[in-house]
Amino acid sequence: MTGKTLIIGACGQIGTELTLTLRNELGNENVIASDIREGKDELKASGPFEHLDARDYKAIEDILIHYDVEEVYLMAAMLSATAEEHPMRGWNLNMDALFNVLNLAREGKIKKLFWPSSIAVFGPSTPKENTPQTTVMEPTTVYGISKQTGERWCAYYHKRYGIDVRSVRYPGLISYKTPPGGGTTDYAVEIFYEALKSGKYTCFLKENEGLPMMFMEDAIRATINLMTTPAENLSIHSSYNLAGISFTPKELAAAIKREIPGFEITYDPDFRQDIAETWPSDIDDSQARADWNWKPEFNLQKMTDTMLNGIRGTLN
Ligand SMILES: NC(=O)c1ccc[n+]([C@@H]2O[C@H](COP(=O)([O-])OP(=O)(O)OC[C@H]3O[C@@H](n4cnc5c(N)ncnc54)[C@H](O)[C@@H]3O)[C@@H](O)[C@H]2O)c1
Question: Do residues 277 and 184 lie in contact, with contact meaning Cβ atoms separated by under 8 Å?
């Protein structure tokens, strides 16, 4: 590989693990991490790091040229719960950042682009069970509207300008290496920390609110698999449905109790429950399985054990 890879929003929940995995696979110097935040030590120590605002077209262009970048992963965004508190800021960031990289690709300055969508593209009128790839999408959050719009623009740039842009609709992602960034599924990370620290957790969703989730290792593998699949195998140019594990807070609490018998969960739903109610409970990802052999490796118990062991390691 001659050209390099740029991650925009590398300090976030996904960006951090994605950067470290890609550096492992491609070589540290070939993967440039960037973020609007002060860089994390582990990202700065293991390879190039640039301070970069995803809304600044010229600044992105300068980095692309300086490093001879070919592939870009755009991870900078405002997530669902935070964007409900700042709707216009969320919309502007999510759309401006995407248009910047799409237009840089159109100018021939990016060869291949990854941009993540989300299960938030779905809404209350979408079938909740086994949600199909192509279905009714009437999102009710500003985040979901920005992701649905983004998907349409990705498909448009592919069709009209031949841009190689690839995308998955991530479910809620679970990891212990970097804290989540303000999403509706963050409870499924917080619960593990509280289980280990205090033995109890108050959940901001109702006990039976089932949502699609995925362990981070699976999400990173899916992302890299999709990006390394030959373009001619891909049939979806908006965003692929992607599924891992679906569970309710009650089911997750039961899995944790098997390891920490005294663990107690209580429920105090807030505005995030209203968002969660509009999303599917599980996703049909047969198109991703057919086109690029997608298959998750983590089930609920394996994810629970990995989270508890991983967090124990960071608390010691
Ligand atoms: N984590 C999930 O569960 C999940 C689920 C579905 C989709 N996604 C999508 O995946 C992508 C990454 O999500 P994440 O969970 O890592 O988010 P995150 O909030 O943890 O990280 C986003 C990163 O972007 C950076 N950022 C914010 N504004 C920026 C700007 N103007 N310029 C440069 N960097 C900026 C932040 O500092 C942060 O480090 C987002 O597009 C998100 O919508 C995430």
Answer: no
**Ligand 1 atom with least separation from CA of 182:** 19
Give every strand in the sheet of 168-170, ordered side by side. 117-118, 168-170, 240-241
- Cα 63–88–136 angle (5° rounding)? 95
Band of the pLDDT at 1, cuts 50, 70, 90? Answer: low
Q: Tell me the mean pLDDT in the region 223-251.
A: 98
Distance 143 CA to ligand 1 centre (A): 12
Q: How many angstroms does the Cα of residue 74 sit away from the middle of ligand 1?
A: 8
Q: What is the mean pLDDT of residues 29-54?
A: 96
- State the distance from the centre of ligand 1 to the C-alpha of 261, rounded, in angstroms: 34
- The end-to-end CA distance of the chain, in Å, is 40
Please list the active-site residues.
143
* Three-state secondary-structure class, residue 165: strand
CA distances 78 to 118, 141, 267, 286, 314, Å, are: 12, 12, 26, 28, 27
Ligand 1 atom nearest 54 alpha carbon: 32
What pTM did the predictor assign?
0.96
**Could you give the CA distance from residue 212 to residue 229 in angstroms, rounded to a whole number?**
24
Side-chain-side CA neighbours of residue 311 (13 Å): 19
